[in-house]
Amino acid sequence: MFQPPNSNQFVSSLMDKRKVNMLQPGKRPRIDSGSIRGPIPNGPMHSRPLVALLDGRDCSVEMPILKDVATVAFCDAQTTSEIHEKVLNEAVGALMWHTIQLNKEDLEKFRALRIVVRIGSGFDNIDVKSAGEMGIAVCNVPGYGVEEVADSTMCLILNLYRRTWWLATMLKEGRKIAGPEQLKDAAFGCARIRGDTLGIVGLGRIGSAVALRAKAFGFNVIFYDPYLSDGIEKSLGLERVYTLQDLLFKSDCVSLHCNLNEHNHHLINEYTIKQMRPGAFLVNTARGGLVEEASLALALKENRIRAAAIDVHEHEPYNIFTGNSPLKDAPNLLVTPHSAFYSEAAAIELREMAASEVRRAIVGRIPETLRNCINKEYFPSNSTLTEGLNGSNYYGGSLPPAHSTTSHDVPHSVSVTSAPGGGPPPPVSLPPGRLDLSLAPPPGGPPGANPSSGPNQPPPSV
């Protein structure tokens, strides 16, 4: 039961107001929601858990999903040394893009962390094993942006075959192409698509989407994926090969769509490039670490690879044309800034799904209620973590919707403190080196109006 402050004057004033309201027909006694919070019906009142966006500032999409169950803070950090001490000591949940690393030493700095959600599909910037050993659940968002990455991949493939970007650049630079001889010289390397073989490494969500699109353009599509069970090739009408060497030997164009791990780092290297068809194309929209840049640069200069398109880079964020990358002077190279995943719709969807995973951890159980926990093996199935991160199961096992572009209504059985003026509490800014906590101004416009481009934005490393 709520107990007011020990002040006779306050009690007397409050009782007088209630009596006046009760004498007016049609009116119920009003409690100032800005000054108190009602108790949680199924247990004692608990403070809101702290959830931090580690390497970003925009919380406008996450706030509607988390506002009634957590305090949301942003750190805008590039390393854990820039994260405020309050977050390191109190945060139970963390959201992160691809621009910050969490190795074992970084994870040990967090005193209360229970869940990390990578805003994206790749999780090579998190020490998943160490997190699991510390009891920290690691989740990702594998289902977002599938269409965008598949469409971007096909765009890059078409550019390599038809050399659209290079031809457009020639005209922009003032080159005049008057006759067939000049056109032949300018469009050297253009190739016909129909009948060529596209080799896909990794037939997951994106790889499958690329395969279906490529078939419509007339490609013969083959794939290599040792983790898939037999029969998937029959359902999609594809040809399956069982070794990478076989795929490289048969393919006119190779497209990478696999995760990065310790087994496939520099999958495309000097040795595997020699196994490719002379003059083949290479496309990488998966992970930069899959390709050894020095070997690719040499293959482009020697024309062993006719042209390549890469959307991901081994060191991000990084501009290969201003740094010391071996690709800086490589010819016939098309580079984009890890943007294949991005569209406004995909960015909002991605952030909603990541925030919803944190919400499930708060109101449910770890790891049972998590949808995409990638280190679940470190948590026994009969987990003793039977409560939400804030100490109570708000919904008795019934979870709210996973994600939505509309604001989540507060459950009718829970009283939630509002910010002055009735709006949601704004995210807390926790800059490094400051002991006082300041409130960030409410984000402008409706939630999700200006989604962060993080990796990859986003924030997207997709």
Describe this structure in words.
The chain has helices spanning 8-23, 63-66, 85-90, 104-107, 128-133, 146-162, 164-172, 180-186, 205-216, 232-236, 244-250, 270-274, 293-301, 344-363, and strands at residues 50-53, 71-74, 91-96, 115-118, 137-139, 197-201, 220-224, 239-240, 253-256, 280-284, 305-310, 333-335, 428-429, 438-439. It is α/β, with parallel strands linked by helices and 462 residues long. Helix 4 (104-107) links the parallel strand 3 (91-96) and strand 4. The chain is elongated and about 75 Å long. Helices cover 27% and strands 12% of the residues. The chain is built from 14 helices and 14 strands. The two termini are 48 Å apart. Helix 6 (146-162) crosses helix 9.
Structure keywords:
seven-stranded mixed β-sheet, seven-stranded parallel β-sheet, alpha/beta, single chain, 462 residues
Number of strands: 14
State the helix count.
Answer: 14
Which structural class best describes the helix and strand composition? alpha/beta
In helices, the fraction of residues equals 25-40%
SSE string, helices as H and strands as E? HEHEHEHEHEHHHEHEHEHEHEHEEHEE
Low-confidence stretches: 1-15, 17-23, 25-45, 390-424, 431-462
Radius of gyration from the CA trace?
27 Å
Which helices and strands occur, and which strands form pairs?
Elements: H1 8-23, E1 50-53, H2 63-66, E2 71-74, H3 85-90, E3 91-96, H4 104-107, E4 115-118, H5 128-133, E5 137-139, H6 146-162, H7 164-172, H8 180-186, E6 197-201, H9 205-216, E7 220-224, H10 232-236, E8 239-240, H11 244-250, E9 253-256, H12 270-274, E10 280-284, H13 293-301, E11 305-310, E12 333-335, H14 344-363, E13 428-429, E14 438-439
Parallel strand pairs: 1-2, 1-3, 2-13, 3-4, 4-5, 6-7, 6-9, 7-8, 9-10, 10-11, 11-12
Antiparallel strand pairs: 13-14
